[in-house]
Every structure is written in C-alpha cells, then in structure tokens.
Amino acid sequence: MNKYKNRDRDPALKELDGIKRLLVLLLIKAGASQGEIATALHTDQANVSRMFPSRKVKRFEIAS
C-alpha cells in the first residue's frame, strides 16, 4: 500500500506538503546543503535532490 495515497485526496495534507516544499526551497536558496536538509527531514539527500535539482535553484546574493 502506498503511504502517500491519501495525500492526493486530503486538502490539509496537500497544503502541508506545499508549505514544506516552500520551506525547503527557502533553505536551499539561503545556502543550506541538500544533505543538511535531508538530515533535518529524516530522509536521504536523493529525495531532496529530486524535489529541487540544485542546478535549477539560484541562491540569494548577499549585498556587501
């Protein structure tokens, strides 16, 4: 049985998943590594990489 089967049906879980994705994107843009994010989410770096390929995300530029 697929553990994510109900995510497509439950609007609350879909919203939470969207919020998580936005927070992960913010962390990547701020300079956190995919490995650090994966550790915090208790998953592998490969899962984070599939969500957000790092070559497609530009990091914040810090003004001096």
Can you walk me through this structure?
55% of the residues lie in helices and 0% in strands. It has 64 residues and is mostly helical. The protein has a domain at 25-56. Helix 2 crosses helix 3 (45-51). The longest helix has 20 residues, at 11-30. It is globular, with a radius of gyration of 14 Å. The model has no long low-confidence stretch (mean pLDDT 86).
Briefly say what this structure is.
The protein has 64 residues and is mostly helical. The chain has 3 helices and no strands.
Question: What brief labels describe this structure?
Answer:
single chain, 64 residues, mainly alpha
Strand content: under 5%
Order of helices and strands: HHH
Spatial extent as radius of gyration = 14 Å
Count of distinct strands: 0
Shape: globular
- Count, helices: 3
* Uncertain spans: none
Helix content: 40-55%
Described by strand count, sense and barrel closure, the largest sheet is: none
Describe how the helices and strands are arranged.
Elements (H helix, E strand, L loop, with lengths): L10 H20 L3 H8 L3 H7 L13
